[in-house]
């Protein structure tokens, strides 16, 4: 235990005056668990006093054990804490007695320690050595605490730097994410606006919206043998040839249609001016429909006459106020009126005649 300064009351003085004494306590080896003892050194400059406190010195009046008695004395002479001290010390130089008075409603004597003055240099040397060693320990402890405080301060600075770095990285990440979300939302908005514009265009003008063609997904082909590869090549070549044949047929059909259109246009351009005007001028849709009905009726009558074999029946054509368009059906009807029909056995209509009638209808529509 270190050297402790205590404040005592001078019991020999007439007035209450305080003195400063220095006390050092040290534990002695106990003989048994029921016994305890301490050595107390009291320094009242320039004299050194020494005493021994054991459990056998406990008064019978005290309601505690011998070990508790020694512990209470040691605690009283230990370094001062913030708590209120339990005892008041009274020092008498002539008697060399230190009395411990317990603080309560009235002062009550706890114990009295009788010291003996010593002039041994070894005792002084021992006490001073203990004081020096205690000071060295305290200095080491203070140095350790200071180094620990320095380390904690450096750690705190590193923590603040890391925190700032983490916050900066977090802010940058949040900014990147926000920019990415904004870009995605803007792209979605543009796509929605484009689709709305296309829908409005379709609703307004009936134009088909332009759809983006999706790229064809290329499937990974498995490694095949020589036979399979040759079969695949042959099937690919045959499919290519069939595609080319289909394309050539379509091109020929388109060429025939284009040729028919050109022939109709050239025939129309060769007509005289009076016929051109008569063929183009149509007053209204009602007149056109009525003329079409008359033509259909005439054709039906001609068909019925040919089936009956009646040569005397003549088809009457009513005059049409609308200028008539030259049609191949009317030419056939007029030819049948002039020449008497010949009864022929009913034969199924060949495919070529149906094709000719379709081509004639197409030419009529083009003209």
Core attributes:
7 helices, eight-stranded mixed sheet, alpha+beta, rod-shaped, 367 residues, DNA binding, 15% strand, Dna Repair Protein Xrcc4, Chain: A, domain 1
Descriptive overview:
The protein is an alpha+beta fold. Among the domains are: 4-119, DNA double-strand break repair and VJ recombination XRCC4, N-terminal (Dna Repair Protein Xrcc4, Chain: A, domain 1), CATH 2.170.210; 121-207. Helices cover 54% and strands 15% of the residues. The chain is built from seven helices and eight strands. The chain has helices at residues 66-76, 121-205, 226-270, 273-280, 285-308, 328-338, 351-366; strands at residues 4-10, 18-27, 37-44, 47-54, 87-92, 97-102, 108-114, 116-118. Strands 7-6-5-1-2-3-4-8 form an eight-stranded mixed β-sheet. Strand 6 and strand 7 (108-114) form a beta hairpin. The radius of gyration is 66 Å and the shape is rod-shaped. Residues 277-283, 311-333, 337-341 and 343-353 have low confidence and may be disordered.
Helical residue percent band: 40-55%
Distance between the termini: 131 Å
Low-confidence sequence ranges: 277-283, 311-333, 337-341, 343-353
CATH superfamily of the domain at 4-119: DNA double-strand break repair and VJ recombination XRCC4, N-terminal
Biggest beta-sheet profile: 8 strands, mixed
CATH architecture group name of the domain at 4-119: Beta Complex
Beta-strand content estimate = 5-15%
Please tell me what the overall shape is.
Answer: rod-shaped
> What's the Cα radius of gyration?
66 Å
- Kindly identify the CATH topology of the domain at 4-119: Dna Repair Protein Xrcc4, Chain: A, domain 1
**How many β-strands, per DSSP?**
8
Structural class: alpha+beta
Q: For the record, what CATH class of the domain at 4-119 applies?
A: Mainly Beta
| H/E element sequence | EEEEHEEEEHHHHHH
Average pLDDT works out at 74
Q: Strands of the largest sheet, in order across it?
A: 7-6-5-1-2-3-4-8
DSSP summary: helix tally: 7
Region (Disordered): 210-278, 302-367
Protein name: DNA repair protein XRCC4
Biased composition (Basic and acidic residues): 229-241
GO cellular component, one term: DNA ligase IV complex
């Amino acid at each position: 235990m270190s050297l402790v300064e205590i404040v005592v009351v001078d019991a020999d003085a007439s007035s209450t005056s305080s003195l400063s004494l220095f006390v050092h306590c040290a534990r002695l080896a106990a003989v048994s668990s029921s016994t305890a003892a301490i050595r107390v050194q009291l320094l009242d400059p320039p004299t050194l006093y020494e005493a021994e406190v054991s459990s056998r010195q406990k008064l019978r009046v005290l309601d505690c054990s011998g070990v508790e008695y020694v512990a209470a004395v040691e605690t009283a002479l230990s370094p001062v804490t913030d708590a209120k001290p339990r005892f008041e010390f009274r020092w008498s130089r002539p008697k060399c007695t230190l009395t411990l008075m317990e603080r309560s409603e009235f002062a009550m004597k706890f114990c009295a320690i009788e010291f003996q003055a010593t002039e041994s240099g070894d005792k002084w040397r021992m006490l001073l050595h203990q004081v020096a060693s205690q000071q060295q320990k305290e200095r080491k402890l203070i140095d350790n605490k200071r180094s620990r405080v320095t380390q904690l301060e450096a750690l705190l600075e590193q923590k603040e730097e890391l925190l700032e770095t983490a916050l900066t990285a977090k802010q940058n990440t949040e900014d990147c994410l926000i920019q990415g979300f904004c870009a995605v939302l803007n792209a979605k908005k543009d796509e929605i606006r484009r689709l709305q514009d296309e829908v409005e265009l379709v609703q307004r003008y009936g134009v088909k919206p332009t759809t983006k063609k999706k790229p064809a997904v290329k499937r990974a082909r498995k490694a095949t043998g020589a036979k399979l590869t040759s079969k695949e090549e042959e099937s690919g070549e045959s499919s290519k040839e069939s595609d080319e044949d289909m394309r050539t047929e379509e091109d020929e059909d388109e060429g025939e249609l284009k040729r028919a259109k050109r022939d109709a246009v050239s025939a129309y351009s060769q007509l005289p001016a009076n016929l051109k005007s008569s063929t183009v001028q149509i007053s209204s849709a009602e007149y056109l429909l009525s003329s079409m009905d008359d033509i259909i009726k005439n054709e039906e009558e001609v068909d019925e006459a040919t089936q009956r074999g009646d040569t005397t029946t003549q088809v009457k054509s009513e005059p049409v106020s609308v200028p008539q368009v030259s049609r191949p059906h009317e030419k056939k009807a007029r030819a049948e009126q002039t020449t008497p029909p010949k009864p022929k056995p009913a034969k199924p209509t060949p495919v070529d005649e149906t094709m000719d009638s379709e081509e004639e209808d197409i030419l009529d529509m083009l003209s």
